[in-house]
Specification:
α11 packs antiparallel against α12. β1 and β2 form a beta hairpin. Strands 1-2-3 form a 3-stranded antiparallel beta sheet. The chain is built from 18 helices and 3 strands. The chain has about 475 residues and is mainly alpha-helical.
Amino acid sequence: MTTENNAPEPTAEPTAAELAELRAEIKFLREQVAVQEVASHQASTKERGTWWRTALATFLIVLACLMAPLSVFSVWAKGEVTDTSRYVATVAPLAANPDVQEAVTTRITQEIFKYIDVETLTTELVSTIASNRNLTPTQQAALQALTGPVTSGIESFTESTINKVVTSQAFADAWTQANYIAHNQIVALLSGDDTGAISVDNDEVTLDLGDVVTQVKNQLVAQGFTIAEKIPVIDTQIVLFQSDQIGKLQMAYSALDAMGFWLPIAVIVVGLLGVVAAKNRRRAFVGFGIGLFLSMAAIAVGLTIGRAVYLSSLPPTVDKDAATAVYDAFALFLQSGIQAGAVMGIVLALAGLLIGPSRLSVAIRGLAVKGAQMCQHGLERVGASMVTAREFAAAQATSIRIVITVLAAAFVLIQQYKTVSLIIWTTVVLLVALFVVQVFASGVDEDGKAIKPTPLTPDEAESADQDATEKEPTPVG
């Protein structure tokens, strides 16, 4: 009795590259299983006597999130005080703002007419003309009726001339240059020295416009309005900011200026210490990112509410539209810092989620590993095996990843101004660098040796040549 052997014929042995790819996938799957086992163990059992770690981690992370808004404000305050270019970039656009131009024009016009009583001068002029002419009562009445229109015409002419000066490019250039010069005086103002063009009086921050008045006076005289020569040298001021807490703000601002560099670093350090102290560090990392985002959202809401409260509390003597323009100009870079902090929180939270054991996270990391393996195989095909570099990268992969991540974080922290583009591009560069590390670490066996492609035997080479010949198209004709 014979038994027919239906077993499949043995196939060709896998190549070295295929074995390397299988080993890498097995290693990756083992790592993911280990991560899931640790996560399951932590979820199902609670270690006794470690409650203090949870309390400490929670305290440090919450403290870091509470410090974050203060750090954003301190960076903004330090920039406005110490960086002349940034300060001028804040205030220079105000010269072209219609509300500010209107406020400046109105303020200078009012100041000029304090010293030139146009209505009295017009009345005296009309009376003089009437007394030196033999006019009938009707003619005298008609002449007297011109007093109002002449007065309005002179006032309109003066205000129009002032407006031309204020809205000219020359005024914008002078405004910018004056703010460059005044920047040091702002520093003196915040330190309590209120001498100079910008000063504090009656809880108001004011800007002296005496030079602008002089320009207007000269232009009026040049256009034939010689009576403007009577305008004396005066200190015309426009209110930039009003508060009954300026003294306290000066003290707080000095402290914030000192913390402008170190406070953002302290926020990250305290937050990471909280992550290290936590039992589940990945969840703590995600929590830190979410908390940072929420703290930025809170300060953004506070800034909006503060704007409304400030504008509603302005005294009647302050031009509300101009004050709004000034507030928004100074809040612009503060808003940029808030947005950068929110994006940083999102990046940290996503990073914590991607290193987790969820199916989506594992799938994303698996795609990255397979992509790195494909890149490595492509390098081998073009002869760029780089055996030494691959073996070193595989042996030190974890350390290299940590160093690259720390360098990326340090690069962001040492920048005086954190912006959304800075956070995003640094994150992109970091991900590219980590992917390159993974490419070099691919194709290495368990002993840390780079797997080289196995050369074909003569029989395999001949078989390959025959297969290639059979696949070639038959010439037509």
